[in-house]
From TrEMBL:
InterPro entries: AB_hydrolase_fold (IPR029058), Esterase-like (IPR000801), Mycobacterial_A85_antigen (IPR050583). One of its GO terms (molecular function) is acyltransferase activity, transferring groups other than amino-acyl groups. Gene3D superfamilies: alpha/beta hydrolase. Transmembrane segments: none annotated. This is Acetylesterase. The lineage of its organism: Bacteria, Bacillati, Bacillota, Clostridia, Eubacteriales. It comes from Massiliimalia timonensis. It comes from the Bacteria.
Amino acid sequence: MAHFNGSIKSDALGMRTNLTIITPADILNAPEHGKVVYLLHGLSDDAFAWEQNAQLPQLADTYNLTFILPEVQRSFYTDMAYGLKYFTYVAEELPQICKRLFCISGRREDTYVMGLSMGGYGALKCALKKPEQYAGCGAFSALTDIYQLPERAEIEEPSRLREIQAAFGMEHELFPENDLYRLAKECETKPVKPKIFMACGTEDFIYQHSVKFRDFITPMDFDFTYKEWSGVHEWYLWNKALHLACAHFFPETPNNPYCNIK
């Protein structure tokens, strides 16, 4: 694979920030306009987590994908009430930076966003807020109901309430504009909509988030696919989910060794 680990200057964030890029190994002979996947990390991870725990080189080669792994700290992929503009960075500035630096495709039909846990929430938010930008979205063990965050934080770890307030406001006043259910209703009326693939383990502590969102969006006018199997909140499940999502979104890939994965 071609592999970049480094940092870039972000005007939206007002600082340098870590970035990982993984491309097919034979980049010079890869077909032009390969697909691009923005791959988003979870709450306790960083820009290197997917690279360290998933089979990105194999997937990049098999599907002619470029994976872009940004870092957003514990921001919930939000333009924070008391912090930095991480949604603006990921959904608006980063694609422009990457197109200039790495000559990737900027076409909607080539652009996907995927993520796990907090990153699954971020992927859904990007795709539902900007359906004209993303052809598809993969969300694995995704946080989908942000209104449960304060209650869960108070029960499990009261100090986490401060970071939720930093992201969404002291009175959680930014919840409505970052609510996936509201965004899905708004997106349903738009002329183009992203394809959505969700997966979750049935023993995952966040499983009910996936089930609730699945039941909400299934009757709506979306191309929606949902998978579940026995598993918890861990990398074995997310690696399999990423394989399944790639096989789902890119079925035309010749000689795909993952096409029969269940």
